[in-house]
Structures are given as structure tokens and as C-alpha cells.
Amino acid sequence: MTNNRALPSLALAIAPIAVMFGLLVIGYGMLGLRIEPLLLVSAVFTGGIAYKMGYNWDEIMGAIVDKLAKAMPVILILVSVGGLIASWMVGGTIPFMVYWGLKVISPEYILIAAFFVTSVVSVCTGTSWGSAGTVGVALMGVAAGLDVSMAAAAGAVVSGAYFGDKLSPLSDSTNFAPIVSGTTLYEHIQHMLYTTIPGFIIASIVFFVAGQHGAADAVSEPQKVIDILAGIESLYNLNIVLALPPVLILWGAIAKKPVLPLMLSASALGLILGMTVQDFSLQQGFEAYVSGFNISMLSANGHAVDGLVPDIAQLLNRGGLASMMSTILLVFCAFSFAGILSLTGALTVVLGRFLHLIHSTGQLILSTVAATITVVFTTADGKLALLIPGELFQGAYRKMGLDTKNLSRTIEDAGTIIEPLVPWTAAGIYMASTLGVSTLDYLPWAVQCYTGVIFALIFGFSGIGIAKAKPASTEASAENISFAAVK
Questions:
Q1: Cα dist from 423 to 68, 267, 302, 428, 456, whole Å
Q2: Is 30 helix (H, G, I), strand (E, B) or coil?
């Protein structure tokens, strides 16, 4: 859409951003109101500014539609992730990974085992909450039986859980960060390795050394682990072929295959395994794919589920296309605001003034980190910490000749994995209540979660691992900015 109108004044340009930020801080952060209506109110306010500038209703709607059209790839991916998780439950892939993750635990190296197992599960499943709430709970039981520091064990679980949440192609935040930053999924994941792998190495050393001090030579398996293993064995036919879907995903990631066809193929493979290995019907597979898997489906197939430990149901009752609908609604509301904001040119004005204060790559990275962490602390939502800086800083990176995958990496380093370290965020509350250790107690041990910020700043000021913009990206307009949110 061609925009020949004069840009707004600085005060008028800041107004919609300030209103949105204020509504989110007060309405969502303090009063606990739903984000969607707050974003719609922000869109209405911004629409009023656009109308004042001379834009008519058709132009405003056109701007929203343009933004939604650009968001369609991520919307399709997000929906596919829900179906993928459900299909892997039907096929037995996720239970298979959890089962063998628990089987390979060595009591002598419980902390490093907790870190590695949750890392593997979270990478394969793309969910930090799911891995912490299933294998993480069992691993905490192992640590308790070994008289190991529960704070250290919780830190190892949280570190491993968010290692995968940060890198897995199945993670909603990993898919979301490159979209709001203007880059691609696999470029984002590859660029994340610069800050994530050094943190992984440091965390591994810390947990290996610390684990030796509290380890026991011979300790029997905790009853919870035994119950979970027995429950999974009773419900599923565990076969090595169940590892094929994650192998397909990992192969596709390495080979840089298109994400959506890869996910659909892995989902189809999961459903096929469900019918051929687990004796589910096609109808059950489709029902799970759409509405989510439920342990009652196993009961319908003749498996006894009444006497199982609650952790089994917590592991299995997940996924489905429908599970992503609230996320899609949030994306639509966010893009209603972002489309109108882009139409007014407000970001061009704000970024133009802001860039006068930034004179180096290090300062830009530092500003991005500070803004992202501020959003986490004020809104208590790590996804908003991707949304807001991704919108505000994308043009700045392009104008400084930097590839926007630097932005997507930085907002994940300072947003996604910082969230569980803040006691009043949803992630902080979930991890503390699930693992039975307060957020501030496990914070020093969650090494993987804060080393990303440290390395982001080191690389920003040293220039190491900073990608320059490709010629096509350099010519791109700062107006081509994606703006979305994922729950």
C-alpha cells in the first residue's frame, strides 16, 4: 500500500505505542485482564490516530489484511505443531522418548542426567512446560531420593527444558521469534547456536561438577519413576520404530526442508504408527489430531488407566489443532494493532529518533536486551517480550546493516529463557509449583537461562557471531515488520 501522507509528529507516533504498553502493563500485568481485548483497544486507539491523519476505513482494513497475510505461514505452522504433538501421542513417540529418558538416568550423575534428559525431551517435543511437568517431576524425585540439592536439581531441569524451548523447531517461541523479527526459522535456529551452545557447555560443566558432591554410589530407583515406567509400558507397545518421527524432524531441520510439509509428514507418520503399532483406529487418530490426545482413548482400547499415577495423564493429555486456537486469536488481535500502526508510519518516526542514540552494534544489542527484559518484568509474559521488541527494533537492525536474525536471537536470549527466572511470570509460577522449589532458589542454578544474555552482550560488543544483512534484506523497507503473539 502506497503511503504519500506526512508522517506523524513524535508525540503522535509515541502515543499508540505508549497506550499499548500501558494497557499491557496495567491491564495484563497488574489486573490480570486478557491480552486480546487490550490489543483490540490499542488497535481502536491507533485507528483513531490513523483516521485523524486522513486514512479512511478501507485503507485501515487493508493494512490489517496485509499484516495478516504475512502472518499466515506462522499461523499454519502453529496449528500444525498442535496436531504434531497429538499424533506423536497416538503413535507413542513422546511416551517412548520419556520412557527411555528415565531408563538411562544414572543416580551417580543425577544433575547432569536431569539436564541432558530434559534437554533431549524438550528438543524433541518443543515444550518446556511439558518436559518439566513430566520427566522433570520424575527427575526431582530421583534427586530427593539421592539427597541432592533440590534447588540444583530444579535448576538443571529448568535449564534443560528451556534449552529445547529455545532451539526446537516444534517450539512456538522458536517459530514465533523469527517471524516477528523478519527472518526464517532455520536461520534463526542456526544463529541461536552462537549463544546457546556455549551456555550448554558451561551448564554441563556446572551440573557435572556439582553433581559429584551430592551423588550416592548406589540408590534404588524412586517409586515414582518405577510407576511412570510401568504405566508407559502397560499403555504402549514400545518399539524402536517410534523414534522415526523425531528423526524425520531432525533430518528435515538439518537439510533445511520446508517446515510445514515436514511437520505434516511427521504427523502422518505418527498417526500411521498409532494405527500399526498401537492399534488405534483412524477415527481415533483424527480425533486426537484435531481435539487433542486424551488418556481415555487408551481406556477405550482396553488399557487400564484408573490406577496410573497422575503424571501419566499429565504427559499424555496434550496437543491437537484446537489447542492452538487461542494462540491464533491472539495473533489476529495483535496484527489488528500492528497493521494500523504500520500504516501510520509511527514506527518510522520513533525508530528514526531512537537511532540517534545508538552508534554501535553493541549498543543496539544492549538496548534490545534491556527492552526485552523490561517487557518480561512489567507484563509477566515472555511471549510479549518477543512481540514488542521484535516490532520496535526490526527497522533499527536493518538500518544498521545487520541481519534481523541477530534480533530474533537476542529477543529469545533475553525473553523466552529469562521468563522462568521471574517469580511473578506464568513460567516462573509454573516451574516453582511443579518442581516444588521457589523461583529465586533455583535461579542461580538455571545456568542455561541466563548465560544467553551474557553471551549476547559479549558478541554484540565484540562483533563475534554478528551477521551482516544480505543485499536483499538491506534494501527491505522497515515497514515490512511482523507483529504477533503466541501463548
A1: 34, 36, 43, 5, 23
A2: helix
The residue behind cell 488418556 is 295
Residue 343 CA to residue 61 CA, distance in Å, equals 10
Q: What is the number of helices (H) and of strands (E) in the chain?
A: 25, 0
Residues recorded for the chain = 487
Angstrom CA distances, 348 to 8, 436, 462, stand at 9, 47, 28
Residue pair 456/301 in contact by the 8 Å Cβ criterion = no
- pLDDT digit string, tens, across residues 75-119: 787 788 788 888 988 999 888 877 877 777 666 788 998 999 889
Chain centre distance of CA 266: 20
Q: Which residues pair with 468 in a beta bridge?
A: 402
- List Cβ neighbours of 140 (8 Å cut-off, separation of 6 or more): 150, 153, 154, 157, 435, 436, 437
Q: What are phi and psi of 474, to 5 degrees?
A: -65, -35
Q: How far apart are CA 248 and CA 316, in angstroms?
A: 21
Count of CB atoms situated within 10 Å of the CB of 439: 23
d(CA 94, CA 312): 12
3-class SS at 425?
Answer: coil
Residue 374, burial from CB neighbour count under 10 angstroms (0-12, 13-18, 19+): middle
Could you tell me the pTM of the whole model? 0.67
Interatomic CA distance for residues 356 and 67, integer angstroms: 28
What pLDDT digit, counting tens, does each position of 156-206 carry? Answer: 999 999 998 888 887 878 888 888 888 888 889 989 999 999 999 999 999
